[in-house]
Design brief:
Helix 3 crosses helix 12. The chain is of the alpha+beta class and about 525 residues long. The protein is about 35% helix and about 15% strand. The protein has a 7-stranded antiparallel β-sheet with strand order 2-3-4-1-11-10-12, with no helix packed on it. The chain has a 7-stranded mixed β-sheet with strand order 7-5-6-8-9-13-14, covered by helices on one side. A 3-stranded parallel β-sheet has the order 15-16-17, with helices on both faces.
Length: about 525
């Protein structure tokens, strides 16, 4: 939501408005320039507080950098009130006394979490971690690279793949004093709601629609003529698009990527059924025309974020089209899987899982496997928040591609009222995603939408890219593997695994190979950024 550089020599100086943010000597604080956000400062005789937050529904007036004067004794109460804001918010507190740490606070959403790094007597923060690469003095952590290569994901954590870069997770606070590293304090875990019985007369789908409509109303008023929604053709985005269309007076715009092959043909048919139902103004791009990994990534909009969207060539093009059409924000279906999560006690007993040695990529070195095992207990995940951890991971992954395109992403499935409602539902409403399927069926959509034989998946796009479109480029990446140079993979084994995947029906290592491509490109991105530059 903002970028900043805080230089120790500037901290005693007065802050002044720059028109785009605030400056003091060599220091600056710059809010992300977007119509969905507002920025202001609170000033006391001994402190300056800078606030960037999402506006409530429909408040899309021009951004101003306002200033509010307060007595010192009112500051703590104001801070507490600010952090109760029901949407995204980041608060930065600078005290004029040099011995008092700089403090940063994040609200409970963390749509665009800040990444933080120190450089000598300066603290830098940015929503796009790639902009901090030139400031790193060390490379990615060996054990965490091994963890990623084993397809175990990137935990949502204050500790990132890069030892020098920290992330301000939801509800967390950070403290920094010149000459020291950043320390981030996690908040307490939020309580978890458990299923309850519903009355026989309860209208569960009707209540769900009311809550989802209210959630969307956090950002869009009923008279907003710029409502936009991602529409893949899957359950979650279909539900959001239909409810958004119901509550707005103007036609909404929908945006989607069409994947290759039969899956894409079926997807396009499902999308047409939905857009016809809601009279949406639809834009669909053929994803294969923007194949990922077909070339090196050197431009600012292409810089690789290892936990980000790996098919952002196509996704970025779609978002830029939305921006050209007048969209400032876009509703997503992210979080829809999470509202149907079953408790362990609700899941039927599973077959014993394979041992770790059977599922690890064949090209990992023994050193990498040991590092993976050693890292597993040091991951430091953030405590449970209002939504499932996988939602926060997904929001973190989308930050760079959305904000680079000038679009602010919206996540109605992660609003507290939707999460609370769905966690409280009996098992039968969450199992097999009955709630969304029932809602779409009742809306009049065909079974091909609410119970598709071939579900939504980007696998055809990634498969075509890895096996065909980018095969030569990826082969050259692996032949000069930076991961091999670091001792994480066996180069010959990596090339053999990739050749087998490209020429046979062996799919078992496709995810690991995709992860290897992402990390190879990440390491090259870091190499190619000019050292010492920022932004």
């Amino acid at each position: 939501m903002l970028t900043f550089s805080l230089d120790a020599s500037s901290l005693p100086l007065p802050w002044t408005s720059s028109g785009r943010g605030w400056v003091a000597g060599n220091s600056h604080i710059t809010p992300y320039p977007h119509a969905a956000l507002e920025a202001f400062s609170l000033r006391t005789p001994r402190s300056s507080v800078f606030v960037v937050r999402e506006k409530m529904g429909g408040r899309l007036a021009a951004n101003t950098v306002a200033e509010i004067a307060l007595p010192d004794q009112d500051l703590d109460g104001q801070l507490a009130d600010l952090l109760q804001w029901p949407l995204n918010i980041v608060v930065l507190v600078c005290r004029s006394h040099a011995a008092t740490p700089i403090k940063l606070y994040s609200g409970g959403w963390a749509t665009a979490p800040l990444c933080l790094i120190t450089q000598g007597q300066t603290l830098h923060g940015h929503w796009d971690v790639a902009q901090l690469y030139p400031l790193m003095r060390s490379s990615a952590d060996f054990g965490r690279l091994a963890y990623l290569l084993a397809r175990l994901g990137t935990p949502y954590s204050r500790t990132t793949l890069f030892p020098e870069i920290h992330m301000l997770t939801e509800r967390a606070s950070a403290a920094w004093s010149p000459g020291s590293d950043v320390s981030i304090e996690y908040p307490p875990a939020l309580p978890f709601s458990y299923p309850r019985q519903t009355l026989d007369t309860a209208d569960v789908p009707g209540m769900f629609e009311q809550l989802m409509s209210a959630s969307i109303g956090r950002w869009f008023s009923p008279h907003d003529d710029s409502v936009a929604a991602e529409l893949s053709g899957g359950l979650d985005s279909a539900v959001v698009s239909i409810i958004a269309a119901k509550r707005t007076s103007a036609p909404i715009r929908t945006y989607g990527l069409i994947v290759p092959g039969e899956t894409g043909q079926i997807q396009a048919t499902r999308r047409r059924a939905i857009t016809d139902l809601i009279s949406a103004q639809d834009t669909a791009l053929v994803a294969a025309e923007f194949a990922p990994f077909s070339q090196a990534r050197r431009q600012p909009e292409d810089l690789m974020v290892p936990w980000g969207e790996y098919y952002h060539e196509a996704f970025g093009a779609l978002l830029r089209q939305a921006r050209q059409n007048g969209a400032h924000s876009i509703l997503t279906g992210i979080g829809g899987d999470e509202i149907s999560t079953l408790l362990w006690s609700e899941i039927a007993p599973q077959q014993p899982s394979m041992s770790a040695s059977e599922v690890l990529p064949s090209f990992l070195t023994p050193t990498a496997i040991q590092a993976l095992l050693d890292t597993h207990d040091k991951l430091d995940p953030a405590p449970p928040g209002a939504a499932e951890a996988s939602y926060f991971e997904a929001a973190q992954a989308g930050t760079a591609v959305y904000l680079r395109a000038g679009i602010w992403p919206l996540y109605p499935y992660a609003t507290p009222e939707i999460v609370e409602f769905c966690r409280s539902l009996p098992t039968e409403w969450r199992r097999d995603r009955r709630l969304q399927r029932h809602y779409l069926q009742a809306a009049g959509l065909p079974a091909s939408v609410y119970r598709p034989e071939i579900p939504e998946s980007f696998t055809p796009l990634i498969d075509q890219t890895l096996r065909e479109d980018a095969r030569g480029f990826i082969t050259s990446l692996f032949a000069q593997s930076r991961l091999a140079e670091r001792g994480l993979v066996d180069r010959a084994a990596l090339l053999r695994a990739y050749e087998r995947y490209c020429t046979t029906d062996y799919w078992a290592e496709s995810d690991a190979l995709l992860e290897a491509v992402v990390l190879e490109l990440t390491l090259r991105t870091i190499e190619e950024r000019p050292s010492g530059s920022f932004g």
